[in-house]
Every structure is written in structure tokens, then in C-alpha cells.
Amino acid sequence: MNKHINLEKRRQAIYGWLLLSPAAVLLSLFAFYPSFATFVSSLFSKKTRRKPSEFIELENYADLFADPTFWLVVKNNLFYAAITIPVSIAIALAMALWANSKIPARGFVRTAYFTPTVLPMIAAANLWLFFYTPGLGVLDQIGSLFGLPSVNWLGQPETALWAVIIVTIWKEAGFFMIFYLAALQTIPEDLKEAADIEGCSRWTYTRRIVLPLLMPTTLFIMVNAMINSVKLIDHLFILTKGGPSDASKLILYYIWEMAFAFFDAPHAAAMTILVLAVLCVVAAIQFFYLDRRTHYQ
Amino acid sequence: MTNAPFVVMKAVAKRWNGQLGVEDISLDIDEGSFVALLGPSGCGKSTSLRLLAGLEIPDEGQILIDGRDVTTSAASDRNLSMVFQSYALFPHLSVAENVIFGLKVRRVPRAERAKKMKRALQITGLEGLEHRKPGELSGGQRQRVALARAIVAGQRLCLMDEPLSNLDAKLRNSVRKDIKKLQRDLGITVIYVTHDQTEAMSMADKVVLMKDGRIQQVGTPDDLYNRPANTFVAEFVGAPPMALIQSSVLGGFDASLTLGLRAEHVSIVSKGEGQLSCTVSEAEFLGSETLIGLSHEGTVGLSVLQPGLALLDEGTTVDIAFDAANLHKFNQEGDRMSEV
């Protein structure tokens, strides 16, 4: 009898490992190993024709910390994240609340909001390039109606990063809205009715009932938005290429430049590792701190 | 108690895209009474309740609560509370927060809130569970939280939409008694929607039986059981329901009548002495008695109750007898004919 149970247990264990292995193999091959290899290469110096690569401990990291461009890029990226994350979440929530209410043409509204997400980033960036074009662009044309002077939104350091931020928000809000919409539909109708009978205003209902029930979704979206803020740089290639004078350069773009424009793989690797470390820490804080204050159904 | 009814519905109708919701609902409800809206699913009983609650606005008619016309008022202005079928508890709030949610919204001072909550929890036997979330409670406990939330504000009118349908049979029995006691102790008016006639008959002072969006009969449980207004009521109320017999089968009546007969008025007699000779179609042992289903051409739902275990084989022929005084007479339209 006992032997039989042991056999069954082992069978279950093997079964479990078999189910896990495809994902585990692919992840190891394409995520864990590259991360580890990146870490290793960040500890070696750049290989040139005259000098072979050698182990230099954390010198690459020290170089980065001494590089003013690196700090500028970090500052840009923090600013970019600090604006895009809360704003796109707030807009997504507002749109979802609206698209979830009983309005005519609800399907149309939802589709319209979701369209930016469906567009490839490169196409979207080209679209916005046209909006921003000085003189010809939509923004300037509208501005000229009111007698405003032409502005080169992408060409001046003061506005370039803002222009990029707006494109990101426009692109992400619709995507996050879908998650909020899905979550809103899991909230039973009769909670609203119960609140109505108690004389609860729409605003109080949203604040006291809907928002807390949406917390798990908000948490998920926050982590995603944070990752996107370092991950999404496609539009930089089209819109600004990080310029002017690095005003709109973000970390991943800088890493790409370091690796494929300056051919300095070790420094790019070091920067990648820093980004990974920061992302891990922030995600952990979000999950462990906010998770405890979140109600899961 | 005043003479004017507490809740009045006057010729209320609600339709959806031309489809029938409810039609011509007129109802007077006295203060302090327990009224059950009874009917099969889709009969419009929940719609009627939602109209009263202000969750739906009627297309026609008028609704008065406590002498005030509330036909188009918002739910919150009607001074009533409601228990939902799903309980509609806020899942992220604790029991205590759920109960005082409404008081908080209405800005009742903290001390009074605490006092009222304590009393509501005491009445519903929820003390000690204040800090649990609804997800950590059993079905019966959740039901009591919904009740506590309904009574905490001290509203005089409480609407209940099938509050027991998510409980198991045993719990349902005890909660039924609790609700009835609660209603009596607090002296509140309860309007209670159910599809379960046992609930309606055992709890209500007045039962409103509905079908296809219309009221079939309003009356005491005694009225509905002993004086059904039409054949639908006769067949709906009672377990087993009233048997319907075409008058031509029995003879001695006008040919187009339908006659109703309750199982307890039927007895099995020896061959040749009964009014009707039937075939046994089924026999069900219920414990204290045995229900024997009978079939005969021109009859529906004919049955007889025998004390104790008295199973009969299917297909057996038996003779039955009954007193003609116990027959209910319905005309061709199925409406009750006044007793002559």
C-alpha cells in the first residue's frame, strides 16, 4: 500500500516537471542565461584588436557612475516614468469607467480607445511625427488658427521629452483601459444597487467600492507600466533619436546606442544589469507592500 | 397604526422593449405587515420589488410609500432597506464596515453608528465576527450580515429579494423563523419575494401570487389555500397542488366547469363505493404519510394522502370518494365561481 502511494507521488512529480519543462527550457535559454551572460560580460573590459578582454571587476559600473550622460538619461527616464505611469493609469481608469457605463455606442467608444494600442509603435510614432512637424503639423496648424507661433516640439530640449511622454500615454492608456474594463465587469451590478439604496453618491461609490475592488488590477498595471517605461523606446527611433542634446534619451535607447553605435558591449551590459536590478527591487516593493493592502476576490 | 395603507402601488406597469415586465400591479400594504410576492420565475415579482425599491422606474402607475408619492424618486429617498438575493456585500469591507456603510454615507455620527451597529449585530447574532471579510463567512453568516445591514438604519420598510435561495434546506428553515421574529420584534414592514410557496405561506400575513407580470390573487395564506381565485392559484399553491377535474368526468355539474379538489379531502374506498375509479400512477413515501398519485381521463394532478407507509403498486385500480362540499368550482376561463 505504502509503496503504491510512493509510486503515485513520484509519478505526479514527474508529470509536474514534464509540464514545467518546456517553459523552463525556453526561459533558461532566452532569459536566464542571457541575463547571466550579460552580468559576466559587464565585469570584463572591452576587447580591442590590441588589447584582449580582461576581468576588471566593477570598473565598467564605476565608469557609468562617472558619466554625466548616464545620469542625464537616468534623470530623463525617472521623469518619463513619473509622468507616464500615473497619468496613463488615471486616464485608463477614467476611460474604463466611462466605457463601462450605460452609454450609447459603447462598443464604438471601447474600440476607439483601444485603437492606439493596436497600432504598431513605429506607425504611431510616424503619425505623431506628422502631428509635431513645425509649420505643417496638426498641432501647429491648430495653433496658428489662434495666432500662436510655430513650435518645434521635437526639436528643442525643453519640449522633446514631453512630446515623447505624450505619445507614450496616448499609446498605453487604451491598453490599460482594457484591463480595467475587464475588472469592472467582474464587479456585480447589485453592489451598485445596494449602495444606491443606502444613498451613496456615484463618487462615493467609485471611491469606496470600485477603486478598492480594482486594486489588484491597478497593481498589475503599475508593474507593467513601470516595466514599459524602461522597455518602450521604439518611438524614440522615429521621433527624436534621443535628441536634441540627449534631452529625450531614455535608458534602453542609451544602452542600444552604447552597444550598437559605440560598440561598447561591456558598458551596455553593465547598464542592463543596473536596470534589471532596479526593476526587480521596485517590482518587489510593489508586490510585497501593496499586495498586503489589496483585496483579492 | 394609521388606517391608510403604508405602501400603495396603483396600476403600475413596466415594459421592456414591448415585452411584458409587469402590468397593472395594484397593491395596498399595511404598516407592520409581512407581504410575500410569490410566483414562478419570470412572473415579475422581482421586477415589482425593484420598482418599489426605486431600482427601476415604472412606465405607468403610481407608487406611494408612507403617504408620499415616490414613483420617480431615487432609491435613497424612499427610506427603505433591501436584502439582495446575492446579499450584495462589499467583498473588501469587513462585516462591521459593511453594516455601517449606509450610516457612514448618511453621515451618522460615530458614536451613534457604533451603538446601532452593536445592536444590529446583536439581533442577528453576528457578535465576534465584526472584523471578518464576507469571503471568510459561511453562507448563513453572510445572509445575516445582509440582514444586519438592512435593519441597522432602522428603516420602517424592508424589501427582501429571495434572501434564502442561496442557503441549504435546513438553514433555510431556521433563518425563515429568524426573519419572521425579527420582523415582528422590530415592527417593520417586510415585502418579501420568493418562488418558494412554503416560505410565503409560513411567513406572510398576506401573499401576492403573480404570473406573467400580473397579480393572480392577493390574500392571506388561508385564502390562497382554501379559496384559490383561479385554476393557476389552485395548481400553484399547496403540496401536492389541487387536482383539477373536468366536470364532465363526474357528472351532475354544468359541463364546462373545472372542479378543484385537495388531496386531503380524497379517501380511498372499497371497490364500487367511490365516485371515481382511478389508476395509481405513482406512490411516494413521505414519512408520516404516503402520497399516492392517481390518473384518470379528464383529471390533472389527482392524488390522495394515506397515513403511514401505504405504498400501492403502479397500475392498481382504486376507487376514491370525496365530499362534494369540498369541491372548488372554476368557470370556463378558470376563474373561481362564487360559492352558491
Automatic annotation (TrEMBL), chain A:
Q: Does the keyword Transcription apply?
A: no
| Pfam family name, one | BPD_transp_1
Residues that span the membrane, as ranges: 12-33, 78-99, 111-131, 160-182, 209-227, 268-290
- CDD domains xrefs: TM_PBP2
Alphabetical GO CC annotations of the entry are: plasma membrane
The membrane topology of this protein is: Multi-pass membrane protein
Q: Boundaries of each ABC transmembrane type-1 domain copy?
A: 74-286
Listed InterPro entries: ABC_transporter_permease (IPR051393), MetI-like (IPR000515), MetI-like_sf (IPR035906)
Question: Can you tell me which family this protein belongs to?
Answer: Belongs to the binding-protein-dependent transport system permease family.
- Give the protein name, as stated in the record: Lactose transport system permease protein LacF
- Whichever gene encodes this chain, its name is lacF
UniProtKB/TrEMBL annotation, chain B:
Q: Which keywords appear in this protein's UniProt record, sorted alphabetically?
A: ATP-binding, Cell membrane, Hydrolase, Membrane, Nucleotide-binding, Translocase, Transport
PROSITE patterns per record: ABC_TRANSPORTER_1, ABC_TRANSPORTER_2
SMART domains of this UniProt entry?
AAA
Per its UniProt entry, which superkingdom is the organism in? Bacteria
Enzyme type, top EC level: hydrolase
Keyword Translocase on this protein?
A: yes
SUPFAM superfamilies (UniProt xref): MOP-like, P-loop containing nucleoside triphosphate hydrolases
| EC number, as in UniProt | 3.6.3.20
Q: Which GO terms describe its molecular function?
A: ABC-type transporter activity; ATP binding; ATP hydrolysis activity
The family line of this record is: Belongs to the ABC transporter superfamily.
Q: What is this protein called?
A: sn-glycerol-3-phosphate import ATP-binding protein UgpC
Annotated gene: ugpC_4
